[in-house]
Design a protein that fits this description.
The protein is mainly alpha-helical and 335 residues long. It has one domain: Hypothetical protein af1432 (Orthogonal Bundle). The chain contains 17 helices and no strands. Helix 4 packs antiparallel against helix 5 and helix 5 packs across helix 9.
Amino acid sequence: MTIREELELREEKMLSRYASLSIHSKGRVREEEQCDIRPVFQRDRDRILHCKSFRRLKQKTQVFLQPMGDHYRTRLTHTLEVSQNARTLAKALRLNEDLVEAIALGHDLGHTPFGHAGERALNSACPGGFRHNEQSVRVVEILEKQGKGLNLTWEVRDGIRNHKSSGTPRTLEGRLVQLSDKIAYINHDIDDAIRGGILREEDIPEEYASVLGHSSKSRLDTMVHDVIIHSMDQPEIRMSAEVRKAMYGLRGFLFEHVYLNPAAKGEEKKAIHMVTNLYHYYIEYPEFMPELYRSMMERGEASREQAACDYIAGMTDSYAVQKFEEYFIPESWKN
């Protein structure tokens, strides 16, 4: 018996009856020989962790555009916090921790530079629209490994595709990541907003703070415990009505006072301008895109519009700025 088979048996014995077992995965688009050490979801986790798109997350905006300070979240640190929250919950609920971690690490691989500002820019510019969750799936299915994709299991791709509020993941592990994403960004965005002088702890409405807590630590602790208590041995991921209402109320408060606050988002118009102009530049001059995207167009695997979205969405903030300066700023004006 291989190590993988021993681990699969351990899952069957130890995990909840509602957990997704590696041995019951719906599999991959392209069949592969099994690893002798790792079950399929652990293997997917490793593939995501080692891919180039994952490494680029460290230079992509979470909320604050190029903030002055080392301690603000990036898209990478957000991803790691989502993963840690989801793993803690999965372990307590006896769900598949490898599947949870793979979905969490991959859920934002398709996010644009400059956070949701870049996403809005591509969504407006591209005739087919742009959604970062769909782009994340496109990254793992097609764009990684020079057009070969990562060939992940169905369950991981489903969780990535459906992690937004509008999605309906088909596994409890996917639903756990979906909720962990909200728990992570609500808490760390408050922390970053306080660090940036946009919020004070005492600005948080008491109707939410009295339920969730008066610090990031207490709010996170309340939410995690509430999910565990109400989801234990249940066929769904749930929160109590009181905590859920307070969490979504706090989320609405953040939209009003942070996500749409000119002090936090004042530079977004510039970011949108950059992304929009880069998109139109590549539509007009596709020869300036890398060979991967040009070859996909030549083979009829991507339209010019899709290729431009693919290339720009994969850029880091700094690379997008570099390309904008290269194409639109005269040499004599540069420092």
